[in-house]
Amino acid sequence: MSARQMVPAPVVLVVDDEQMVLRMMERALASAGYEVHTATNGLRALELAMSLPAPAAIMVTDVRMDPIDGPDLARLMLRASPSTRVLFVSGYPSDPEHGPLAGPLLQKPFMLDQLVQAVAEIAGSAFGQH
Q: Rounded to whole angstroms, how far apart are CA atoms 128 and 85?
């Protein structure tokens, strides 16, 4: 038997109102070893986040959604869970209406390996320092 301890996979909450995009991101991140939970809008994401046994380590969220957009969702999530890191995804260039985002932006369309890499970098910065 190995003396290595199993480290639990970081929990990632993925939020996007485009069902196909949501499922592709979910599959890519799950294949990379993350524990993935999904929501199709900000309200469902908040409900789901509150029901998780521990806060999500990372939230990947679309910028433009209804009834709560990504930046507002991030603000609400960070109030409840300040340790959660946020990665925004959007098909639109930076939007002055939203002001500065509370995390990096991955521009749609992106390759799924770019998403996995971006999440890995955020996870590394969150968990790589002891």
A: 13
Query: Is residue 59 in some structural domain?
Result: yes
Residue 32: inside a domain, yes or no?
A: yes
For the stretch 93-117, pLDDT in tens is 765 565 667 789 999 999 999 999 9
Which has the closest alpha carbon to 12: 98, 91, 123?
123
Q: How large is the greatest C-alpha to C-alpha distance in the chain, in angstroms?
A: 55
Threshold 0.70, pTM exceeds: yes
How far is residue 77's CA from residue 59's CA, in Å, rounded to a whole number? 9
pLDDT band at 126 (very low <50, low <70, confident <90, very high): low
Q: What range defines the domain where residue 30 resides? A: 11-127
27 within some domain: yes
Note whether residue 5 is domain-resident: no
Residues 6+ apart with CB under 8 A from 48: 13, 37, 39
d(CA 6, CA 62): 32
Domain count, the chain: 1
